[in-house]
Write a structure and sequence with these properties.
- By secondary structure, this protein is mostly beta strands.
- The chain has a domain of about 170 residues: lipopolysaccharide transport protein A fold.
- The chain is built from two helices and 27 strands.
- A ten-stranded antiparallel barrel has the order 12-13-16-17-20-21-19-18-15-14.
């Protein structure tokens, strides 16, 4: 006797869209609200019954094979739902909501598998930045201020309450910041959004203050409560000035900031609240290759660590700081080197196109070598200033304030 059954026999009972079915299940302080517009309940002889894998896949995902691992592929789901709405709330506070074209529930595994989904992650309104106009997707008033995530599939464990999203995952935050990957995991208990190193991730900010940032990495851990993003591997970060958005004020106060600044490092921490990035290399690397690399038009920099500020630069004396074993190469229009410099620290001025070198600085140009307590390189000219009176004393690091 064949275990396969026609798909039509799996749909014995259907509640049409003549009424709204609501189910509320309380698990401790957690409340889950389900709203299917059409509910398919397999008959008693079908629920949990074995089925051919190809038939089940056509039932679950008519467009192709499921991306989410761990979804049973050898038996009929306990419930099949269309136009699926699922709200997770704790102590009367919304945590997240998911809307899907269809969903399938497996009670033994405490598992919900959904296809073609949009998720809304809710946070504390007081913690949310003010969104630029048109930054987020169009959302209903009750979802205003939520982070919106679209994906091909989602998998939710009613035991752990985690939400996993698979396939063309795009997360748009209230301020327009966007993340893209093939997989994301949201933990509502910690409000962390994470991506394993096996998956590339790309991020991009909405234009603000005449600038935007972009980055790629392998893996990510985003603490949404603090706004801190950890990029654990193969970081490629870029700050880009938008000429059409530069005002007369920023043209003066940020005259030292180049059009592009690109930073390559092993790992990075992005502090969205401070608009700051910290870039480092793995301590396990050999010293010869343990360098963060910075590229600007006609300038190359390498150092053990680097800090970049990418917003509100008119309030900061320095927009970038390179630390430890700093090496700088300036290039001519054709890429030929015209000046080298080394130092223990390099501070890049925001208002004037110049670099302050401290901690045993040396500048090499042609056959000349310049040393001093502080050496200032003016990049728009051939001027190099030397100060041996320690008038520019870094003292305690202020990191751009």
């Amino acid at each position: 006797m064949s275990l396969a059954k026609p798909l039509s026999s799996l749909r014995k009972t259907r509640l049409r869209q003549t009424f709204l079915a609501l189910a509320a299940v309380a698990v401790g302080a957690q409340i889950l609200f389900l709203r299917p517009d059409a509910l398919e309940v397999p008959g008693a002889s079908d629920a949990g019954r074995p089925i051919r894998r190809e038939d089940l896949r056509r039932l679950i995902l008519p467009g192709g094979e499921p991306l989410a691992p761990g979804v049973p592929e050898d038996r009929v789901p306990d419930y099949n739902l269309e136009d699926f709405h699922y709200l997770s709330s704790t102590s009367g506070k919304k945590e997240w909501k998911i809307i899907a074209d269809r969903a399938h529930m497996y009670t033994a595994e405490n598992l919900v598998h959904a296809a073609t989904i949009r998720a809304y992650l809710y946070g504390d309104p007081a913690d949310l930045p003010a969104p630029p106009k048109g930054a987020s997707p169009t959302v209903a008033p009750e979802d205003a201020g939520a982070t919106v995530i679209d994906a091909r599939e989602a998998k939710h464990s009613t035991a752990t309450r985690d939400l996993e999203m698979y396939g063309n995952v795009v997360a748009v935050f209230p301020d327009g910041f966007t993340l893209r990957s093939e997989y994301m995991l949201y933990n509502p208990k910690t409000r962390n959004l994470s991506i394993p190193r096996a998956f590339p991730v790309a991020g991009e900010s909405a234009p603000e203050g005449g600038k935007t940032i972009r980055f790629t990495s392998r893996g990510m851990d985003f603490a949404m409560l603090t706004g801190e993003i950890f990029l654990p591997e193969a970081v490629d970060f870029e700050m880009i000035r938008l000429p059409q958005a530069v005002s007369p004020a920023t043209a003066t106060t940020e005259a030292g900031v180049p059009d592009t600044t690109r930073i390559i490092s092993d790992e990075a921490r992005i502090y969205r609240g401070d608009k700051r990035g910290e870039f480092r290399m793995y301590a396990s690397r050999p010293l010869a290759t343990r360098f963060v690399r910075v590229a600007q038009p006609r300038l190359k920099v390498q150092s053990r660590e680097a800090t970049l500020y990418y917003r509100e630069l008119d309030r900061r004396l320095r927009y970038m700081i390179a630390r430890e074993d700093v090496a700088i190469k300036e290039e001519g229009e054709l890429g030929d080197p015209i000046r080298y410099a080394t130092a223990g620290r390099a501070d890049f001025d925001t208002q004037v196109n110049r670099i302050f070198l401290t901690r045993f600085p040396q500048v090499y140009q042609d056959s000349d070598t310049v040393t001093g307590e502080v050496v200032t390189i003016y990049r728009d000219t051939d001027i190099v200033e030397v100060d041996q009176s320690n008038a520019f004393s870094t003292g305690q690091e202020t990191d751009g304030e």
